[in-house]
Amino acid sequence: MYIPSNMKMDDLSTAHDFIDEFGFGVIVSDSLTGTHLPFVLHRDEGDNGVLYSHCAKANPHWKELDNKEVLIIFSGPHSYISPSWYAQSPAVPTWNYAAVHAYGIVSLLDDKQTLDAVEAVVGQYEPGLLIDKNIISDEF
Amino acid sequence: MLPGIVGLKVELSNIEGKLKLGQLRKKEDQVGVYNALTQSSNLQDQALAHYMKKINSGTGGT
């Protein structure tokens, strides 16, 4: 991504916080296939953190991911900016936004690890669901 | 459920983040943009303003 030096997120924790808040990303691999998935960041693992997610096996994208380098794009809030909002004119319209690009190598998880990854997502977005077995039973 | 899904782990080698929030403009311009976004009825505008406030960027110090 083109990032002028004065628009760069200045530290890793700002980018990590961004992923925590806007964790619905697009994973893109060599074939230029993209899959939209919720990601959970474990920031204390590895040098730059580790992302966990899961996808439907019916989506063939997973078959090409193991041990491959991927780009994961996280978009944050964005909006049109009217030049009429500036104190000074003339000016032109623009679009303001924040975004994070994360690069890394994929490992496919076994069933036990996949269950952990599923619970990590649920734990982040609806922790009560891990306790209430009336809604999701243990058989799942 | 498990037979139908596959888990992914991605060990990150690099992360890059960009903030294009008008934070390089003059303070008066930043205030104008932030106020307009805050007062907008558009939910995207409000979400952008909320994030700008949270990380204290592009708000002109408001």
From TrEMBL, chain A:
InterPro entries: Split_barrel_FMN-bd, TR_PAI2-type. This is Transcriptional regulator. Gene3D superfamilies: Electron Transport, Fmn-binding Protein, Chain A. Pfam families: FMN_bind_2. The lineage of its organism: Bacteria, Pseudomonadati, Pseudomonadota, Gammaproteobacteria, Oceanospirillales.
From TrEMBL, chain B:
It comes from Neptunomonas qingdaonensis. This is Transcriptional regulator. InterPro entries: Split_barrel_FMN-bd (IPR012349). It comes from the Bacteria.
